[in-house]
Amino acid sequence: MNIEIFEKKDQNTTQWSGGTTTELYITPQDRRYADRDFSLRISSATVEIEKSIFTKLPNYDRFLMILENNIKLQHKDKLGEILQPFAVDAFDGADDTISWGCCKDFNVMLRKNSGLTVNLQAYVQLPKKIMLAEKEHFFYSVGGTFILQTNLEKIKVGKETLIHIRKAVEPITIYSNEESTTVIHVEITPPIKDVS
């Protein structure tokens, strides 16, 4: 099992036209969001203006989860929908996308045609036992700290910290003594190998 921890003090927060964005993870690690040449990016952002136009990212699929408040989100000419906390919206980064309302959100951007799939979910009720099964996993703490327990160790994960686990096959358990803790889980599944 390979574990990386990205604490709040190590994360880079920048301004955008409607608030702030904090980059939690980017790969390859020598890439920059502004150059649009990354494979995967995970971030958290604040939307501090009532109406926001999303940056177009035509080479990426996007996965958005609201962490605080509600927003109305509209893609292209489709009817807008209200996103409540921990609901997920998956959409094409090339779409014209507009939001109404202020919020804090969690974003996953995945390069199109990578063969990877993303599963994004929130664990509001803890403890949670998870089988890792050779996938790539990210866990992010919202509102408090949690403990990630493997067969060999217990790792305390602080508020707004991202933990990245690769090459793991054993189960883990996530638990917290704080009622306010929610854990965001990003599961990246590689393409199915052709064994023929």
Structural write-up:
Strand 15 and strand 16 form a beta hairpin. By secondary structure, the protein is an all-beta fold. Strands 2-3-4-11-6-9 form a six-stranded antiparallel β-sheet, with no helix packed on it. The chain has no helices and 19 strands. The model has no long low-confidence stretch (mean pLDDT 91). The radius of gyration is 17 Å and the shape is globular.
Strand content: over 45%
Oligomer: single chain
**Helical stretch count?**
0
Tell me the overall shape. globular
Average pLDDT number? 91
Secondary-structure content class: mainly beta
Write down how many β-strands occur, each being a DSSP E stretch of 2 or more residues: 19
Distance between the termini: 29 Å
Largest sheet: 6 strands, antiparallel
Q: Pick out the low-confidence regions.
A: none
Helix content: under 10%
**Rg over CA atoms:** 17 Å
Descriptive labels:
196 residues, mainly beta, 6-stranded antiparallel β-sheet, 5-stranded antiparallel β-sheet
Please specify the SSE layout and strand pairing:
Elements: E1 2-6, E2 12-16, E3 19-27, E4 40-47, E5 51-53, E6 60-68, E7 71-75, E8 81-83, E9 88-92, E10 97-100, E11 103-111, E12 117-123, E13 128-131, E14 136-142, E15 146-149, E16 154-157, E17 162-166, E18 171-175, E19 182-189
Antiparallel strand pairs: 1-17, 2-3, 3-4, 4-11, 5-10, 6-9, 6-11, 7-8, 7-10, 12-19, 13-18, 14-17, 14-19, 15-16, 15-18
